[in-house]
Amino acid sequence: MAFHVDSPAVSYSDDKMCSHYSYQTCEVSPQADGKFVVKPRTVEYDFEVQRKVPRLGCMLVGWGGNNGSTITGAVLANKLQLSWATKKGRQHSNYYGSITQASTTSLGIGPDGQEVYVPLKDLLPMVQPNDIEFDGWDISSMNLGDAMRRAEVFEPGLQEQLYPHLSQLKPRPSIYCSDFIAANQAERADNVLTGTKSEMMTKLREDIRDFKKSKKLDKVIVLWTANTERFCDITDGLNLTASQLLGSIERNAEEVSPSTIFAVASILEGCAFLNGSPQNSLVPGVLDLAEQRQVFIGGDDFKSGQTKFKSVLVDFLVGAGIKPTSIVSYNHLGNNDGKNLSAPKQFRSKEISKSNVVDDMVESNRVLYDEKETPDHCVVIKYVPYVGDSKRAMDEYTSEIFMGGHNTLVVHNTCEDSLLASPIILDLVILTEVCQRISMKSGKNCHLIMPFSLFSR
């Protein structure tokens, strides 16, 4: 580690780091007259971090897609320290866009009165991206070298250097249920599992074990970066509990989605599952099973461009006492994600995900918004093949300001979709792994537990 904490509240040994933290908070009690009573209180926490960094593998669902081929190629390029010619000169591989690898945080004040910053990755023992092994599944049999060329994300000079390596990698067969993704994906589906959903789940579990054994890994994390599915039904008898969900898979229920099957297979193998698409993969039965098995799960779509910017901007406006009243978001893209989202049911999953990001900000300010009042919010996504992975986003934010005035902000955002999403994939995998090595307790008579519930919802 890049630093050592000299404090009676922190101790180090060869295998773990222990710390005690006093968290200052307040209990707020509403009164009958509409006022509040605030009572400061201190919560004592003890944390324990296992120092040994494991040998980690990541299995991507949708490995042959734009995100899968991009993240695999980017890690390999960094590992091999590749560079390539551009119009502006020589470009070297990097991990820009990753908060663990390319952001810093303040440790405190140095002797000269200036803040001292260190990379976020130095705060705790973390897996290095170059050490992560990749594998995965895809409904397309195309090798990753050809998938990289099809994606048209990397510059030609980098593609040529990566192709001999990536062309040796081929996705494992995946689950294809035509009812859950757009019909236009059928032409890609030449690498699919057969049998019942229970049989397919068994094969996924075998794949995880095979990858872990063949690469001599300590841990595997499974991440969904495949097509957006339609929302699945959530009903009693189908997926409200772990036993219901397992029973539904056993009887081959049609309404159990492929992403949910991958989540269940991962949990049963003790592997964390991360969902990078906006569908409701983590049904109540998945949450129940994960809690029973104490396995990390999480995720509700990657937010890399328009929606990420929207969440920051709306938070700023509401925090500044400005009232957004209308948000109109239009974007078009030409990659396979855009093609799949051109179908109404799959678009609806994305629309819900994009719209929900402003809800928390609205709920936090009852000065600006009455109960149940929300801004008008419209989301449009169009498929334009020519622009490829270079997604265009145009947003108009209209807000009410002082004394009935109005303010309008118009934003144009060109997003290199997979180059923004891939560092997020890395961060999710790295941070999920380190969280699996953290235990905590509150109070003298409590036992150390994995903070599962903090990260699973």
Labels describing this entry:
single chain, 457 residues, alpha/beta, six-stranded parallel sheet, four-stranded antiparallel sheet, 14 helices, disordered C terminus
Structure description:
The chain has 457 residues and is α/β, with parallel strands linked by helices. The protein contains 14 helices and 18 strands. The strands form 5 sheets. It has a 6-stranded parallel β-sheet with strand order 10-9-4-11-12-13, sandwiched between helices. The radius of gyration is 24 Å and the shape is globular. Residues 453-457 have low confidence and may be disordered.
Alpha-carbon distance between the termini?
30 Å
Major β-sheet strand ordering: 10-9-4-11-12-13
Helix content: 25-40%
Proportion of residues in extended strands: 25-35%
Q: Calculate the mean pLDDT score and round it.
A: 91
Query: Which blocks of ≥5 consecutive residues have pLDDT under 50?
Result: 453-457
Write the layout of secondary structure elements.
Elements: E1 10-12, E2 16-30, E3 36-50, E4 56-61, H1 66-79, E5 83-86, E6 89-92, H2 99-102, E7 104-109, E8 115-119, E9 133-138, H3 144-151, H4 156-166, E10 172-173, H5 197-214, E11 219-224, H6 242-250, H7 258-268, E12 272-275, H8 284-293, E13 297-298, H9 306-319, E14 323-333, H10 336-341, H11 344-355, H12 359-363, E15 376-383, E16 390-400, E17 406-416, H13 417-435, E18 438-442, H14 452-455
Parallel strand pairs: 4-9, 4-11, 9-10, 11-12, 12-13, 14-15
Antiparallel strand pairs: 1-2, 2-3, 3-18, 5-6, 7-8, 14-16, 16-17
